[in-house]
Amino acid sequence: MTEIIVQLGISKYMIVGIIGLVFFFMSIRYVNRLFDWFERQTFSTRNYILEKMELLFWDIPEQKVSYFLIAVSLGLGFFTLGLFLLIGRWGIGLILSTVVVIIGWKLPRYLIDYFIYRRIQQYQNQMVDGLTLLANGLRAGLSVPQSIGMVVEELPNPIAQEFSLILQQNRIGVPLEECMEGLVKRIPTEDNSMFVSSVNILRETGGNLAETFDTIVEVIRERIRLKQKIDTYVAQGMFQGIVIAIIPYAIGLMYYIQDPNTMKVMFTHPLGITATFAAIFLDAVGMMIILKIVRIKV
What we know:
Shape: flat
Largest sheet: none
Order of helices and strands: HHHHHHHHHHHHH
Mean pLDDT: 81
Number of helices: 13
């Protein structure tokens, strides 16, 4: 088949171009059906991302989220396939493009989870300053909403955004207790739950909120101190896990530099490709297990 194509004077670049044009015109013809099918297949993923973006205070239209998901999955997949078609590696190109499509579709979910985790950590680090301001405001004779407004004015995001949302909800008639419960749902940490519970209970039964906030601040400081100490102890285990995960790729690079023909079979022969993917998968699993072991919740 290859000899016939060469005799006809058709280059591989022309074949790739023809295939690309066919996909392009078919995509234009069935673009609405294509988007509908992808939305049906990934409705839960898109909705999950949209819900998490609300927690991050990101205002991005649903349509743009759908376009982004398709671009980072199918777009990168077809790009990868095209590159390997140009160099004549049809088999490995098809396998890698499929992997790229799957990773590209799943990766945004993990990225949005990471942004949520980072936001919660930033809020957690700001709680000491926020509760100290609340306690000072209450001692100065301000009410709880007025003290919360002082935190919004003095501190940066994300605690300013979260407390500002509480004030906005309270101004339109939502009880302060319900507003505080919403804060726990958005920032589900033990310290935040303790803070909200103390506010709601003491507002009903009476008590000194300022002293309670001072006690919570001390608890949070001790927790942060303990967490820093644990992070210091597990840093060596984390470093060892990263080194172990990198060693196989470093050895493969060394073999490739010394004798490229030895490593080419790992990317050209079906058995070598299977072994490569198996090694990458097992290496990733081992790294995840090590991270689970060294990650200690305080």
